[in-house]
Structure formats: structure tokens, C-alpha cells
Amino acid sequence: MSFQLATDPAKLDRPNEDFAAVGSNAAVLLDGAGTPPGAESGCVHGVSWYARTLGGLLLSALSPGASLTGALASSIEYVNRLHVGTCDLKHAETPSATVVALRWGDTDCEYLVLADSVLVLDRFGEAPDVISDNREAIVGRELRKPMDALPTGTTEHSQALREYVAALANHRNRPGGFWIANTEPAAAEQAITGRVHLDEVTAFTLLSDGATRLVDRFGLTTWRNTLDTVATDGAAALIKQIRQAEYSDPDGRVWPRGKAHDDATVVYGHPNG
């Protein structure tokens, strides 16, 4: 298995809250849920620390034989122990993260997807198989309307963003809402999981939601074209295209969004590379 990885922060003066890593038998991508400027999280470490710490622990827990959901649950519990003494883990805005995980053996690959990062399988002779967890998008569709009606970057938009994030928190990790990694290990059981034979797949692509914008928010391209861009020009080329689109609409008038730019991360792997 061979991989390439590219990541780019939304802003140079803020930490990249995405995390991705590849090991000998597994790969992980996490997208930390950022706290809007001016909002408190109850955590002295921050979202970037949370995504990086959970991601590293999860990668090390994905040993052969362990269940993917079990590995994620135990990793969440371990992170809880690391900062329960210094942070308010019951705070509504305590750090959280989406999770995509792959683990492969000699003949097949298992995957896990929790919240709105995406895994795309490029299959022989078929359309790409897009594995995504859209429960947060469904919940947020109505909640985000006041924010999306305002120009990105304005004081009014920033306030609406804080209100949107606070409202979304009321639906986090509960039935009828959406599930994400934060302080509740049982959320791991709500992840989308599956298995695919390696001889059915030509490539795996893991993307944070900042790296899927061209398709699912801007509607400028297709998953097929996205995979072709990464395969031909590299993972960084896809992120460059996203940045160009974002800069063409800085106020979010064409494509309403919470942030003008988002952290963007792509992990691209070949089973027989």
C-alpha cells in the first residue's frame, strides 16, 4: 500500500485542526470541530491538540484483530483521561472531531466513517463509491439558514456562526441528531463501517470536509473528476483548486458557508502501490 498526503490550514495564523497519518497497516484522518472566535470550549488544549491526540492514539490502536469501533471507543476514553483533570469535558463546546479510518490486510480493507469527513473508493470499472455520514448535514440544514444569508466575514455572520455552532451542539451525540468523536466512547458504535476486497479497488481517498467543497458545497466538479485530479496531479493540486474557488467568492455570496476557507486534508492510497 502506498500513500500521498496533503494538508493546508484555513488561515496561517490559526492551527490546522485536521490530522492525518499513515501506519504500516492503517490510515486515519480527523477533522477537529473548530470553536468559533470568541467562543469558549472548556478545554485548555484546543481542537488541534484533540484531533492530533485522538488520531495518534487511534492509529496505534488499529492492530489486527481489534474492531475499528472498539479501537475508536478506547481511544476516545484515553483522551478523556488525558485532560479530564484540566478541562471541562461536559462543556457544550468541548473539542470534537470527525473520523475516517482504514485498516488493511493481505486481501481486504476495513473502514470506519464518523461525521462529515469522507472516504471515496475508486472501484474497477464502476463509479466511485462515496462513503459519507450525512447526519450532521441533515440536522444543520435548517439551523444554518440565518448564517448562510449573511456575507462571510462580517460581524453579523460571525455572530450567526457562533449561534449555529451552539444550536448544533444540542443535537450532538444523541438519537435523531448526529454522532462525532468527543467525550462519549459510545459514539464510536454509531460510525459507518464496512469491508472491501483489495482486488476490487484501485484507490482510496480520505478527505476532510474542507477538501470536498468543490463537489458537495460548490458543485463545481464530480467525485470522478476529483479522483482523477488527485491521481494525475497530486493531492495538493486538489486543495489548490479549492482555494482558487474560495478566493473567487470571499463573501460567500455564491456559496454560503460558515468559513470562507477551511482546513483541507487529502490522503490518497493505492492498494498495490
UniProtKB/TrEMBL annotation:
Every PPM-type phosphatase domain range = 15-234
Q: Which SUPFAM superfamilies match?
A: PP2C-like
Which Pfam family is an annotated match for this chain, by its short name?
PP2C_2
Question: Which InterPro entries does its entry note?
Answer: PPM-type-like_dom_sf (IPR036457), PPM-type_phosphatase-like_dom (IPR001932)
- What is the designated name of this protein? Protein phosphatase 2C-like protein
Question: Which organism does this sequence originate in?
Answer: Haloactinospora alba
